[in-house]
């Protein structure tokens, strides 16, 4: 985590910046200080997600998700997560909401099933089943089988029921024929996926992601405790002087 980005210019064109990020996304956390990455590169990424052409938006979203995954501080991850939820999941325009579904699919790939749900993305994704724009509803339907694989009993019973209710409604009463058709396919796909039960593991990869997330959380808590003890010791020393 040596070199800092301070003084390094972000390429003038957003497309050029994204091309660079596409090449460096996995290496950024190893090569640069993450605070500098968030300061210098996150702002143009969100601009690109809002204003870029569809392909550029998706690439910018992928870079943001990778930075979320690489974040070692929960505040950095939480800030990015909340911006995705607020600016895209609850956007007034349909294009950001459509991009949010894509981001959810990326987050399911890069984070554990536990973290995906804990960050609020499962609820947010399901809420878009009622989106007024059919293209958004179609995108959500395509993502639901992957979501179903990440749900477990008994903890996720409400999500499981909500997913089933949304799909049933879309296949029976959606005004768009293509939505009803895809909902029928999604219903069959989801019906074949049995929820995990208890402590059953989704996959070795998911278990590894969860273990890494837990380790990061523990390390951050230990660092905070150590800092609190240091400050307390300094305060006691000052009072005794």
Walkthrough of the structure:
- This protein is mostly helical and 241 residues long.
- It is built from 13 helices and two strands.
- The protein has a two-stranded parallel sheet.
Q: How many β-strand stretches? A: 2
Q: What string, H for helix and E for strand, traces the elements in order?
A: HHHHHHHHHHEHHEH
Write down the Rg. Answer: 21 Å
DSSP summary: helix tally: 13
Unreliable residue stretches? 1-11
Q: Helical proportion?
A: over 70%
The helix-and-strand class reads: mainly alpha
Q: Strand count, sense and closure of the main sheet? A: 2 strands, parallel
**What does the average pLDDT come to?**
86
Strands in their spatial order, largest beta sheet: 1-2
How do you describe this structure in short?
With 241 residues, this protein is mainly α. Helices cover 75% and strands 2% of the residues. The model is unreliable at 1-11 (pLDDT under 50).
What tags apply to this protein structure?
241 residues; mainly alpha; two-stranded parallel ribbon; 75% helix; globular; disordered N terminus
Give the topology, please.
Blueprint: H1 14-24, H2 28-31, H3 34-40, H4 42-51, H5 54-70, H6 74-89, H7 94-110, H8 113-118, H9 121-127, H10 134-149, E1 152-153, H11 157-173, H12 177-191, E2 196-197, H13 204-240
Parallel strand pairs: 1-2
Helix pairs in contact: 1-4, 1-5, 4-5, 5-6, 5-7, 6-7, 7-10, 10-12, 11-12
């Amino acid at each position: 985590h040596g070199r800092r980005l301070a003084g390094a210019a972000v390429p003038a064109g957003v497309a050029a910046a994204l091309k660079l990020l596409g090449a460096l996304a996995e290496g950024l956390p190893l090569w640069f200080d993450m605070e500098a990455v968030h300061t210098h590169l996150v702002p143009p990424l969100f601009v690109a997600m809002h204003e870029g052409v569809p392909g550029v938006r998706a690439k910018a979203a992928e870079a943001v998700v990778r930075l979320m995954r690489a974040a070692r501080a929960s505040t950095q991850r939480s800030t990015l997560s909340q911006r995705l939820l607020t600016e895209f999941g609850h956007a007034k325009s349909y294009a950001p909401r459509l991009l949010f579904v894509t981001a959810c699919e990326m987050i399911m790939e890069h984070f554990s099933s536990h973290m995906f749900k804990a960050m609020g993305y499962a609820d947010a994704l399901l809420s878009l089943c009622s989106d007024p724009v059919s293209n958004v509803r179609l995108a959500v339907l395509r993502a639901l089988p992957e979501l179903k694989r990440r749900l477990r009993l008994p903890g996720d019973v409400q999500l499981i029921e909500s997913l089933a209710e949304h799909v049933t409604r879309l296949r029976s009463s959606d005004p768009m024929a293509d939505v009803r058709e895809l909902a029928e396919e999604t219903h069959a796909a989801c019906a074949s996926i049995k929820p995990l039960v208890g402590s059953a593991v989704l996959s070795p990869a998911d278990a590894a992601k969860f273990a890494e997330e837990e380790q990061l959380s523990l390390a951050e808590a230990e660092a905070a405790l150590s800092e609190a003890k240091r400050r307390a010791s300094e305060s006691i020393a000052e009072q005794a002087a």
